Amino acid sequence: MLAIHIDPETERRLAALAARTGRSPDDHVRDAIRTHLEDLEDLELAKERLQNPAKRWTLEEVERKLGLDG
Q1: Which residues of the chain have pLDDT under 50?
Q2: Which of 15, 37, 61, 70 could form an SS bridge with 57, CB 3.0 to 4.6 Å?
Q3: Crossing angle for the helix pair 25-51 and 8-21, nearest 10 degrees?
Q4: CA 41 to CA 19: how far, in whole Å?
Q5: Among candidates 25, 30, 6, which has minimal Cα distance to 14?
């Protein structure tokens, strides 16, 4: 369980959104955290890939490997 404190303006906006959508504030917060975490994970993966680039294949190489070149 995680407890957070948010500023009154953000809380007001969250309550208004919840009222407009018929979803609970908790649902919106969970979705926002999940989306933000996915974005941060993608960013970290991109940074890692830039620092440690892996082998890259051309379309022709992939097609040949899969036997789709004929």
Answers
A1: none
A2: 61
A3: 110
A4: 31
A5: 25
